[in-house]
Write a structure and sequence with these properties.
single chain, 351 residues, mainly alpha, two-stranded parallel ribbon, 2 strands, 67% helix, disordered N terminus
């Protein structure tokens, strides 16, 4: 699926984003929210630590299964803090942002902050671009007809049925993120260069090791091996499912630019490929502010709390410029994403 371009002259398009940025700046929406973030960090990390304390106190009990569900939610909320830190929404300076990201990502969640920032920045630069966005590269799922027809064997069998397999596969996303983090830390190119650039590789490795030791050490100290395996399966599976369900509504099923659409300006590149999700304060909390995906992509370093206030300004400006602004409910966003996956597999089913 290819983005349709506007017929406005290119010269005019080049200033569209600048005009919108001035409106946002005049509304004070680029200002940091230190008090709001201090409260959010305290409550999120406090709940996260408290949850692990309860796990330790409950001990060798089957009540650990519902606790694993609770901890999957808490872990995802901490991961959202790492996302905000990676975009410097909390602090203007790189140092504090990286420190927060390393603690939230590597130590608390077990996810490489440096790997994620590199991958996520490439996604933000060219969202949904079939050649440039790592989030739509062929893998367990395929996102274009070309990727689908290139599959073979088990991958082809999965591509035919991928809409049905989408949510079950997300149960493995947590494991995949841990594996990718380790691979990013140790992976090298044939010429010896590191495959993924990282500013603090040794620190990241140390923090990931500390996470693994603390996580497994605590569980084995208070539970039998069978209950540990069950806890890990539920916790990691639901964490991956929650993460996937938080990011899937944002771009899946939206236009996918190709090299032929590289003339799109920044405003249209970000708006046309993104989808907002309605739902009020509960959805804001549940999705970590990612439901304001259009505003987030236009202004990645805007504090999460300001995205809701930016939405009507961005929506009105897009209407002025004749730029389609996609917004839907949560379940409809999943329906659109699954419909796209199902459509991509159609040539294989027809064959």
């Amino acid at each position: 699926m290819t983005t349709s371009t506007s017929t406005e002259p290119a010269a005019r398009r080049g200033s569209d984003y600048a005009r919108l940025s001035r409106r946002i700046a005049e509304a004070g929406l680029f200002e940091r929210r230190p008090g709001r973030y201090a409260l959010r960090i305290a409550l999120t990390l406090g709940a996260f630590v408290a949850g692990w304390v309860v796990v330790a106190l409950v001990g060798d009990s089957w009540w650990q299964v519902p606790l694993a569900v609770v901890m999957a939610v808490a872990t995802t909320q901490v991961a959202f803090l790492g996302h905000d830190a990676g975009h410097r929404q909390m602090f203007r300076r790189r140092g504090p942002s990286e420190a927060a990201g390393l603690v939230a990502g590597n130590l608390a969640v077990g996810l490489s902050y440096g790997w994620w920032v590199d991958k996520h920045n490439r996604h933000h630069a060219n969202p949904n671009h079939t050649d440039e966005d790592p989030d739509v590269g062929a893998g367990a799922l395929v996102w274009t007809y070309e990727q689908a027809t290139a599959t073979r064997g088990l991958s082809r069998w999965m591509a035919r049925r991928q809409a049905w397999l989408f949510f079950p596969l997300l149960l493995l996303e947590g494991l995949a993120l841990h594996v990718a983090s380790v691979q990013a830390l140790v992976g090298r190119e044939p010429d010896g260069r590191w495959r993924v650039p990282m500013r603090h590789r040794a620190v990241e490795a140390l923090l990931l090791a500390a996470h693994a030791a603390g996580y497994l050490g605590l569980l084995f100290a208070v539970m039998s091996p069978a209950k540990v395996l069950l806890f890990v399966a539920v916790h990691q599976g639901l964490w991956g499912l929650y993460m996937g369900c938080s990011f899937a509504p944002n771009h899946k099923g939206m236009p996918m630019p190709t090299a032929d659409d590289d003339e799109l300006d920044y405003l249209r590149k970000q708006v046309l490929t993104s989808r907002n999700v309605r739902g009020g304060r509960f959805v804001d909390l549940a999705l970590g502010g990612l439901n304001y995906q259009i505003e987030h992509h236009l202004f990645p370093n805007m504090p999460r709390a300001n995205l809701r206030r930016a939405r009507p300004l961005v929506m009105a400006y897009c209407a002025e410029q004749g730029v389609p602004y996609a917004e839907t409910g949560l379940f409809e966003s999943y329906r659109q994403a699954l419909a796209h996956l199902h459509d991509v597999g159609r040539p294989l089913r027809a064959a």
